Amino acid sequence: MENVRTTARSSGVGGNGGLRNRCRTVGLAVASVLTATAAGFVVSPGLANAAVTGTVKAKTQRMTAASLKSQQDGWYNVGDKLNLVCSTHGQAVKGYFSFNIPNGGWDSLWYKVSDGRYVADVDIETGTLSAVAPDCPPAQQSPPQAASPAPPSQATLRWPLDSVRINQGFGVGGHPGIDLKADLNTPVFAAADGTVDFEGFGQNSSWMLQEAGICILIKHASIYTGYAHLTRTIINKGQKISKGQLIGYSGNTGYVTGPHLHFEVLPLSPNFHNGFNGRIDPAPYLR
Ligand SMILES: [Zn+2]
């Protein structure tokens, strides 16, 4: 994924050619969503949907949510005309429009496209720096998953370390797993019987991502378990694993501030919109 991009919407560089260029068609789309009624002017979302388009200026990710950390579903290509349904604030990214701006800034404005996917505003031309589509309705909160299916007996997990000290629990600040204290090269054990679904650098897995560093994903009978920030793994993809088997060693690879083991649980069909990138609370599954 191109998560190093360049733009500077928030830089306030008014004299910049690139920014001026974006302002050519300011206003028309916005004006067209105002409808006169007896009560005055109201915003008509229906008209807005029809009126607001953006043209892709740089090949950009087609995401399932307003974040590069959501699932990617292909690309939008240069010249694509996108119907923008609504706008929202998501992950701040850098994009196309900062190529003209030294030390470009970041922008968090995203649009939901009529195909149901999301595009970062920084890579499309809408004619203005402001949002041209109405606010997206608040995200539908999926029911808390940890409370839903009772863990099947075969999913009873052991802790992946022999000595368990919790640094950070699940859910705090959107944290999608449990962080366990672990010095470099602490042995890491499989939480249950299963098969290695992925091992290696997280950026090579659409589920584990770059921030996981060197990581392992094991498929069990009814869930997956993930182990992140490892120094190394000692197992291979497709290998059958027994509960308690040594699978690797903890470390500080990926996005970390220090060595620890990040342990996480996913259902077999994760809901990647659950606010935790599909992860669920491991606590009910641990013995
Ligand atoms: Zn973590």
The CATH superfamily of the largest domain is known as Glucose Permease (Domain IIA)
Give the cofactors and ligands. Answer: zinc ion
Uncertain segments: 1-49, 98-104, 145-155
CATH class of the largest domain: Mainly Beta
Can you walk through the features of this model?
This protein is mostly beta strands. The protein has two domains: 9-125, no CATH class; 145-285, Glucose Permease (Domain IIA). 6% of the residues lie in helices and 33% in strands. It contains three helices and 18 strands. The strands form four sheets. Strands 10, 11, 12, 13, 14, 15, 16, 17 and 18 form a nine-stranded antiparallel β-sheet that branches. It has a five-stranded antiparallel β-sheet with strand order 8-7-6-3-9. Strand 7 (107-113) and strand 8 form a beta hairpin. The protein is elongated, with a radius of gyration of 23 Å. Bound molecules: zinc ion. The site of zinc ion has 4 residues, from loops.
List keywords for this structure.
single chain, 287 residues, mainly beta, Glucose Permease (Domain IIA), five-stranded antiparallel sheet, disordered N terminus, binds zinc ion
How do you describe this structure in short?
With 287 residues, the protein is mainly β. It contains three helices and 18 strands.
Protein topology:
Elements: H1 17-22, H2 28-31, E1 34-37, E2 40-43, H3 45-51, E3 53-56, E4 60-63, E5 72-76, E6 81-93, E7 107-113, E8 118-120, E9 124-125, E10 166-168, E11 178-181, E12 187-189, E13 194-201, E14 214-219, E15 223-233, E16 240-241, E17 246-250, E18 260-267
Antiparallel strand pairs: 1-2, 3-6, 3-9, 4-5, 6-7, 7-8, 10-11, 11-18, 12-17, 13-14, 13-16, 14-15, 15-17, 15-18
The structure holds zinc ion.
